[in-house]
Fold each of these.
Amino acid sequence: MRRTATRRHYLMVRPTYFDVEYSINPWMDPKKPTFTEVAVAQWEWLRNLYLELGHRVEQLQPRSGLPDMVFAANGATVVNGQALVARFRHTHRCPESAAYLRWFREHGYRNVRQARWINEGEGDYLLAGPRLLAGSGFRTNTEAHLESQEFFGMPVVGLTLVDPRYYHLDTALTVLDHDTVMYYPKAFSASSRRLLEELYPDAITASDDDAAAFGLNAVSDGRHVVLPQAATGLVGQLRERGFEPIGADLSELLKAGGSVKCCTLELRAGQTEGPRHGR
């Protein structure tokens, strides 16, 4: 099967101030050394790859004292030109919301506001065709799901996360195209697993090793799938399904519990842009 890539529009934040100064997920250990210059180099590789693939990349200026701001996906959810900005659970990240609100307003978004309930943006909201898949269990409140459904005017399907290593939905599930996802079943409650099996009977499922390599923190344009290079099992399954996996090394950012998708917030201005031929 030949897959078709679609040109995307992303927002990213350079990890100028990246560090692990506190621990708000199991991946973060402030005792381990971090190397900001390595994080920047890995991030620049990812940004340049998006440009090479024909995607458009915007940048929001990083703020001193906000070392996790590089994880732009958590800052908002954007669908059809409407931006619902995050309300972070942990005080360490709360100041990021003001930066996103200002950016969206300065860039002409008319329907933009901060979420009323705890809502960590595309960390827990993934657009899958006609619906938003929404995570809860560790960060985003279930009350936020109804708020998002009303704000965007589209169905929101709640999924409960149960493994603290996979604290955001985007660490346990990737939307590959409108009809296809890959996910790690053990990250979800029994009822959520049954729901995913019903919605996506042909989904790709990740092994323990691939999930632990953050292989599901990936970005797909419908053809190319950028994911951590250590997730070799997923790489093989993607090729079998006609996708073109591209391995990434974001190992420095993984020290803070983030990888490809965490660094990438998709800006959806309206209907999906027309298909194009990839590399």
Amino acid sequence: MIAMSGSSVWGEVWQQRIADALAAHGLLIRGGLNFTPDEHAPPGPAERPARAVLLVGQAGARPWPHFMRWRRERPEVRENPLDTWSREVIASVAARFGARAVSPSDRPFLPFQQWAMRAEGLKPSPLGILMHPEYGLWHAYRGALLFDHEITVEVPQKTIHRCDACIGKPCMNACPVDACSVQGFDHRACLSHVRGPLGDACRQGGCLDRNACPYGAAYRYPAEVQAFHMAAFASPT
């Protein structure tokens, strides 16, 4: 059983309703946390420092059919369509439940990765993507809901960081230009390769290093989803 901080039964029921609203779009709650009094929290719905945050994201490619249906209905949205869809969906849920919606692409950037590590107890993989014990590298955070009140949150259980137990680190050996190394991510080398004549495999099937990871294979994004993300990465805009 997962321990809970807080004791409000109403809070659990209320979060289930939020989860149901997100599930209608293929999204899910990815943990939450209450801000400490000395934390520099972003503004909540009342424009005062928020008291709590629920992270919203995905596991595998569950949102893809919902996003593609929206895209067919909104062909005029050409720039950052997935981000636009995510913002609209999460904002609509926020409005229903008295929250303020925020996005990882908001400026100034909010500490989504730090929130995720606290909320779900995750650690970064060698690629920089957070390693999830079940989803592997095949998950994402699409936004968050900020609240003016504290919420009931799950206390993440301690789990083995899969990267610590991984032999050989195949995620560090699949890239033909060694864009990911112990020195970090070489963005320029990666982008040049993906855009170049030898980058077909990456353009059509996604990052070779990411696909080499053995964990969370059941949640691996289909090739069309990976190609979509890679096209966005390689876009000159």
Amino acid sequence: MEPPSIAVQAFRSWGAQVEPLPTSTKEECDWLVSLEECRLIAEEKTKFEDALSIEHRLKTLRGGGVHGQTLPLRSNNRLSGIVRKAVGQLSSTSADVQHDLRVLWFTGTGFDGEAKHYQLMSTLYGSTRVFELNGDGHHRTCYFFRNSDFYRFRNVLDGAYVTYLNGNTLTVKLCLNPYSSKWKSLRDSPFAARLKNGLIDPFGEEGEGAAYVIDGEVDRSNPGAVIRYLEEKYGLKQAMNIDMGMTSASILVPRE
């Protein structure tokens, strides 16, 4: 028996109607979701923790040791593969099912679920953190610093729900793809209205002075060129980028 869909439970909690899409000889996406006359098709993906990672952690803990790990919160090739697969399914379904918007739903689960959540956002946006070397030390997110899946799949992917599960608590971000021709429709949709505190809008953040956006013709494979573009666009001095990481440590505590 398959576990219940996290996406379906969330959509229905927001008042949406969810219909499973029929399977066929083609690779189709999972759901047709309707909310206040707005319809989106969604492909749901769940990333479970790697079995070898679980085995290694349990072996360390059962041996009385401290298990520690650091995961880089930057673009990830395996997650990009998940996005590519979902895009193919959305593209196939969109030819046959009437809809307004197309999204990926991703859930990170397990010990590293939160890290996968941030890694996927970095993969979609090609993002990093940028600060001025002699500035106030404040780091801002820089969107599209690197090559990104949102740009690569701009003709198919209007946005993505990027979530992670911690116990019974689901954290949800709705990431807008500003390179999609329909990104404003998603931003102004009833789906986005249900997530006012969980909406990722790069241009909105840029307008508030909270983020940088690389939106010009620059070689993303050349970090020096991207930095120079940032300095010229925003009047920065000695700008630098840094990728963040998520570090954790755990031990077994005996029951009393």
Amino acid sequence: MQTVVAIYTGQGLAEPLKKVFQELLPDIRLISIIDDSLIGDVNRAGHIPDLVSRHLVQYYRHAEELGADVILNTCSSVGDVAEVARTVIGIPIVRIDDSMAARAVASYARIGVLATLPSTLEPTLRLIQSKADEAGAQVQLVSGLAEGAFDALIRGNPEEHDRLLLETAKRVAETADVLVLAQGSMARMEQALAEATSTPVLSSPRSGVEQVKALLTAALEAKKA
């Protein structure tokens, strides 16, 4: 049985992502490592502190010890750590937003990025620009920070969170061909935002798991060859 270790910096995405795994990869062994102190440390610092990076690398190494075939890094805010760790970890590390970013630059020129936290917005913008550079594509990035939305969610007011995100999406959609959701936890809003803005919306959870599935399938085929 193949094993995937998903590493979370918060609680919110674990259950929704588990359902995607059950749909797309029902026969794998899925292990979740959740340390919800990490995203708080990133948000307070406004960047990824060294201690957070060290903890994440420790979790990647632990995933190796658990027999993981693939590691899924589920938090876009710490995607840069996953990128660097690929050079020292002996198994593939998938950034949950990697495929989403590649799809965006392959199909659209004006890309709006929606986030509720600056610590997620900036890494996602960098990732998309990196994918564009790799593909030789010219893209225009439009930042969409829904200020106050994350705080509303923390206060237990998801309706206010959704309202602020929707307002931001409508504004960004005026100058964008596609909307990219920087946080996987925002995927539940994908359809509502697309309908409200008449603009395609991309989210990361499903495409991230699809990338994991592709790697696992390729590994099985290589063993058979």
